[in-house]
What does this fold into?
Amino acid sequence: MEPFAYVRATSIQEATEAYASHPGARYIGGGTNLVDLMKHGVETPATLIDLTRLPLHDFQELPTGGLRVGACVSNTDLAVHPLVRTRYPVLSQALLAGASGQLRNVATVGGNLLQRTRCPYFQDVSKPCNKRQPGAGCAARDGLHRDHAVLGHSAHCIATHPSDMAVALAALDAEIELHDGEHGTRRVAAADFHRLPGDHPDQDTVIRPGEIVTAVLLPPLAPGAVSLYRKARDRASYAFALASVAAVLRLDDRRVRHVALAFGGLAHRPWRAATAEEHLTGAVPTDDAVGEAVDAELAAARPLRDNAFKVDLARNLARDVLATLARSAPGGAAPTGRRP
Amino acid sequence: MPTPPDGPSALGSPARRSEGHAKVTGAARYAAEHTPPDCAYAWPVPATIVRGRVTSVDIAAATAAPGVIGVLTPYDAPRLGTADDPTLHLLQDLSVPHRGWYVALAVADTPEGARAAAARVRVTYETDPHDVTLSADHPGVYTPAEANGGHPAHRRQGDPDAAFAAAPVRIDRAYAVPPLHNHPMEPHSATAAWDAERHHLTVHDSSQGAGAVRAALAALLNLAEEDITVVSEHVGGGFGSKGTPRPHVVLAAMASRHYGRPVKLALPRAHLPATVGHRAPTLHRIRLGARTDGTLTSLTHEVTTHTSRVREFVEQAAVPARIMYAVPDMRTTHRVVALDVPTPSWMRAPGEAPGMYALESAMDELADALGVDPIELRIRNEPRTEPDSGHPFSSRHLVECLREGAERFGWARCREPRRDGPYLIGSGVAAATYPVLVMPSTARAHARSDGRYLVEVNATDIGTGARTVLAQVAADALRVPLDRVTVAIGHTGLPAAPLAGGSSGTASWGWAVHDACTALTARLERHHGALPPGGLTASADTTQSAKQKSPYSRHAFGAHFAEVRVDTITGEVRVRRMLGVFAAGRILNPLTARSQFTGGMVMGIGMALTEHSTMDPQFGDFTESDLAAYHVPAHADVPAIEAHWIDEHDKHLNPMGSKGIGEIGIVGTAAAVANAFHHATGCRLRELPLTPDRVLAALGSAGP
It folds into this structure.
């Protein structure tokens, strides 16, 4: 790898100032993805600014009942936190379905959000890739793309975002807190944090140069809301999702009061299934109703030569996850509180 | 002869690995963990075209960086002598026979510096059209002179076509196995130190055979073998990919001699698929003809595979069909096409692993067509003598393996597939076989005056437990407790011995160790009084005995049983339990043997379910080139695995009575899993691995 400078920041201000004064700098958290990319020559930062000493390691219960998670919290610590396990099981499940124990111990929340696609052409500098080098072309489109996107891809890029955690965050209506030295703090909905590739596949997210992910904010879930993550993969552990589903469901008198459904492994970002949610809201989540809603969502799918199976897989997963949640949600099959 | 069973036998006891403590504490040194003073580091530059020629190599940017010692290119690299293996003729000419072929070598003070320098080497090429795609009807397909292992490419008995046409029950199926990669845990690495004053090259290499490495380096570097020492003391797996000298050791030695400094070269994982061999993809067509009672009347196994344009290697996948079943009319054929691909090579059970996947899948299909239990079908076709050669078997206990396995697995209780919610559960069986191979070896045994014994043989322990088992062989022949014996292996200064390959190591080395220790015992018996200060020594050379052609057909056999769970929602297939029973002669150490069997079975799970490699038609490389993309089974993929063996006494093998056990564990495993998948779902997938995309498509086409 190319030589690079290393700066260890101990405050957010120090980090953003270091970024401003070091052209070609990149922030680094756990480094589980960035260091690999540096070894492959995909990333060649002149300076690494280490954020892991920043005071962003805390969990904070919010007055609203939500939870604020510092961006430097490890994936492991987030997955096993008692409040996460009890209030946001979908998030804990998603984290534990990702990577390996060793990687989760090192990987941070912020870094997880900012990891790059594992498209083999993106990771190989000897092959064209619009994400790595805009205008170079996309080798995956006519190449090997079984693992690539079926939703929201563009002529320029068919990559998927690899994070499991981000899919759960999208379904939880989480917010990403960002900070830069100039404008201070802003928040972006997790579902809007990652982009579709469009004309600029080199931009994975809406983060601005120099901005730091400082926290993830988990809103309180209404009483009775249940959640679940399910992932399909080529091997039982340590494999990226062929497709995954994160869902949150709350029923009231057997009807869907709130549903949030997000797909992983299908698109350049976690795919929040707004169409399906709209279909289901207010409906009784029978198998047919769920099936119709999911089909309506996946009607937008544009599979490539070798990945049409992902549409079936996503449909199966979503139907299974929603049916499972509908059975376990209070106010479901056995109506409560209405009998005299 | 073996020590009588009532004697104080070390053989057969579950002795723990003698180097186990050193390995788990990190004290054991592997090839890349030797760092001579002033050691430099090398990083090779792979070609980024599929076929053509180098037209220029610009090293200015690479060598401008501080700490870069130099860059060797095809224009200026030292000229090499000739080796048998053309994949070792590195940086000798400008041609590029496949993507990933090395076109330069950067050498620097640090590994990071070498890597950065390699990335800065600018190579230009002239490209030719390429072809990397294998198909059974490829116009370039030809029948080779022979398949790997010296097996005839083509064998025919009787008239299999007429017998097939006349058969009342017929199976005619195509199966496909993708390219597979050895991916040992320790990537290939070497540390080479050329001492100009002593005119001596010392190499620590990650190899399955230090002797073969020394011979290749001598030929390539125009040195005498005595000018070279190769050490392979600890090796982190090889699975065949370290069975022949590989480019890394040649480049390290070349650079060390050229720059006058020790040079270390550890290949990055992503280079392995293109440079250390792979299991070539195989396309199988199998035709089975049978009478309605299940008696086979015709068997044809045709294999089409690829090789590179550098060297012909033909995966001998139709060979196991020649010994498995009693069929009067049989044809087995290998065809190959040379493509612009990396050179395939040995991978655990070359030939048997893919061949028995296809054959044992077809047998399952035949059992299904006949409505006969698949175990019963195999028993009905058990041959009295080897079908191909007509020779009697030295021992053959396949039927016993099938029966004992059925009993232990509870086969009779799981003949009905089950449904458990969204899961379909089924079970399958397949037979396994692997030939008995033995190669000449020498060994030396030394009795020290302090009552201890030193046994020396240039064997290699690639993680199998060979060092430990050889001590057991020695202890028995010496009739002393195991803890009095020290074994020295993995060094060309030791008595010459063959490589660890073909499941032949223990038989080959053990035979020589046995003979040396037996001779030493005789010397000790004749010796009266205290031993001289220098002790006593005896040597052995098994060239005569090991080369003697056996009148017997000698093979190990086994039976695999697998129960799988198919998730109809996701298409995920997971093995719930797996059991193997093997007949492999005398088991010399149940602890290390079980590890060999189950290790092979885990690799078989990978072959069946997860390990997928794709030759990219445009770029000419294997796309899944790291362990995140090439899915070897993770712990979560591996259920409780049982390996058992039957007590097999075979007098026609070697003094220990052992057959090789390193490879048979992967033979037939994938068929057992695939057959279980069929049992569970009613769908037959004839291409490995059984990944969710294929499974969902199959389940979908079969209806909900």
Summary: Chain B touches chain A at residues 48, 112, 115-116, 119, 268, 270, 422, 567-572, 574, 609-610, 612, 614, 616, 618-619, 623-625, 628-629, 631, 633-637, 691-693, 696-697, 700 (CB under 8 Å). Residues 20-29+441-541 of chain B form a domain with the Aldehyde Oxidoreductase; domain 4 fold (CATH 3.30.365.10). Chain B has a mean pLDDT of 96.
